[in-house]
Write a structure and sequence with these properties.
Elements (H helix, E strand, L loop, with lengths): L1 E9 L4 H15 L6 E2 L3 E3 L10 E10 L3 H14 L14 E7 L4 E2 L4 E2 L8 H10 L11 H4 L2 H5 L2 E2 L2
Length: 159
């Protein structure tokens, strides 16, 4: 079993419901009693595409799926919820990204772990810290050392 951390984001078709549905689907691939999810946060979209704000969170669970099998499972969930890959950083019904897979470091054509952009994204770091404040990343850096006051101010925590 490996502990994984998955970023969830949505900004179309009732984003909060999209994330709730995704969490139910993720629980189906998680080891029993291992699923946890952080609070929901509202964030501004990345890039130059005009679109609604995102709702984001991070989920964590144990899995026996290999990294690429996990990626396939996540992409299946995205497709089941209407995901279309039309433009980079464009609006989407659901985005699921593998942030961490245990202490694994890998880079392939399809998958890079840890996620290549997680260090610069408040909508990833803040909910990840909520779940695992003592987390040490595969490169030996503590998650806490990456958080800045600016990251906290960029997000709106939802109830």
């Amino acid at each position: 079993m490996n502990r994984v951390y998955i970023a969830l984001g949505a900004n179309l078709d009732e984003p909060q419901q999209q994330l709730a549905d995704a969490c139910l689907a993720l629980q189906q691939i998680a080891a029993p009693d291992s699923f946890t999810v952080a609070s929901l946060y509202r964030s501004k979209p990345m890039g130059d595409v005009v679109q609604p704000d995102y709702i984001n969170t991070v989920a964590s669970f144990d899995t026996s799926l290999a990294p690429l099998a996990l990626l396939d499972a996540l992409q299946h969930i995205e497709l089941q919820q209407g995901r279309q890959r039309l433009e980079r950083w464009g609006p989407r019904t659901l985005d699921l990204d593998i942030l961490l897979y245990g202490q694994l470091t890998m880079a392939s054509e399809r998958l890079t772990i840890p996620h290549y952009g997680m260090h610069q994204r408040s909508f990833v770091l803040v909910p990840l810290f909520e779940l695992a404040p003592e987390l040490i990343l595969p490169n030996g850096v503590s998650l806490a050392s990456l958080l800045t006051p600016q990251y906290q101010s960029e997000l709106e925590k939802l109830d």
